[in-house]
Amino acid sequence: MSFAPVKEQMDIIREGTVEIIPEDELVRKIEKSIKENKPLNIKLGCDPSRPDLHIGHSVVLNKLRQFQGLGHNAILIVGDYTGMIGDPSGKKKTRPQLTFEETRINGETYFKQAGKILDLEKTRIVYNSEWLEKIDLKELINIISKFTVQRILERDDFTNRLKDQTEISFHEMLYPIMQGYDSYAIDSDVELGGTDQKFNNLVGRDMQRRFGKEPQVVITMPLLEGTDGSEKMSKSLDNAIGITDEPKNIFGKTMSIPDVLIYKYFQLATKINKEELAKIKRDLESGEANPRDVKRKLGFELVKLYYDEDTANKTIEEFDKIFIKKEIPDDIPEVTLKEDSMKLVDLLTSNNLSESKTAARKLIEQGAVSINGQKITDVNSEIEIINGMVFKVGKRKFLKIVH
Length: 403
Description:
Layout: H1 6-14, E1 19-21, H2 23-36, E2 41-46, H3 55-69, E3 73-78, H4 82-85, H5 100-114, E4 123-127, H6 129-132, H7 137-144, H8 149-152, H9 156-163, H10 170-186, E5 190-194, H11 198-210, E6 217-221, H12 247-255, H13 262-269, H14 274-286, H15 291-306, H16 309-324, E7 334-336, E8 341-343, H17 344-350, H18 357-365, E9 369-371, E10 374-375, E11 382-384, E12 390-393, E13 397-402
Parallel strand pairs: 2-3, 2-5, 3-4, 5-6, 7-13
Antiparallel strand pairs: 1-6, 8-11, 9-10, 9-12, 12-13
Helix pairs in contact: 10-11, 12-15, 12-16, 13-15, 15-16, 17-18
C-alpha cells in the first residue's frame, strides 16, 4: 500500500497529543514503514472494569482511528486477564477484583461500542488471556526478574499510598508488568494511552527492550474531565457522557458541562475541522459567542457522531422545546394508575421519578416537582389522580398519567 509522507503523518499524529516518547524514534519507525511498505502495529489496551465506554475513552480511540486512516494496524487489546488485577492508576486503594467471566462479558460490550469510532474490519481485537494464561510459574519468574521493586514503586500511585500508609496488594504490582508483556506479545510499535497510563506504557517499552525487541514509542493523550468539571470522566463518579447513552442524555449532559470545558470537548471529543475549531476558540475567548449556544453545537456534534445528523437535529428541537420554549416533550413516558389519589412522595417513588422517599421529599422541598406546570412544595401533598396530568421532576424527567 502507499503511505503518506513522514511529515504529513507526523502532523496528524501530533494533533492533540501530550507527549510522544521519544518523537525521533517514531519518525524513524515511520520512515522504515514507508521504505518497507509495512504498516506499524499500534496498540491500545483497555481493561473492562465496566461495560460502558464514554467520550473520555473516545480521545484515545480517535487517535487510534487516525492511525488506521494512515494505513497502520490498529490493535485493541481487551485485558480480560489484567482486568482481574485492576489498573491501580489514579487509585488511592486496591480495586475490587473482577472474575474472569465478568471481564469477558464487559469485553464483548467494548467490541461493539468501539465500532462506533474504529473501523472494526481493519481492527485486530484480542484478549490478553491468549498469551497470559499460557505463562507458567517458571516463565512468570523470568518475566518479573527483569524489573526491580524500586522501578515499580516509582509510580506516583504507589508512592502516595506508601506515604499515607495505605495498603498495596502484591498483585497490583504485577499489573504494569503484565500490561507491558502485552506489548512484547503483539510486537507493538506504538502504544496509546491517557496521561494516567504513562507509567504502564513505559513499562511495556522496557519489557520489549529487556527481551531483545525494538521498544515501542509511547503516545499519551489528555484526560477529559467529566461533566462536573473537576474529576476525570468516569462512570463510577456519575460524571460521564456514554457513547451509547440516549441522544437526549448525550445532549443534556453536554449542556451541563462548565463553560471552561467547551473548547476542550470540541478539541478532543468531536471531529470538527481545524478552521471551525479555531473559530470556536476565538468566539469563546472574545466573548462574542454565548456559551449556551456553543454548547448546543457541541451537543449536536456529539449526537451526530454517535447516531446521525437527523437524530441530532431532532434532539436539539426537543431540547429547545423543553428548556427554551418551556414546552412538554412529545414522547414522554406514560403510566396507568387506578388509584383516585396518592401521596405525592409515594407517586414519585413508585414511578421511578425519585430513588427513595427521602429523595422525593428533598426534590419537593427544593421546588423541583411540578404538575401541569404548577410547582408543588408541600411534602405531605395528597394528589388527586386526573387523566392526562403531567409530572415534571428536575429538568429532564417527565411522566404522563393515564387514569
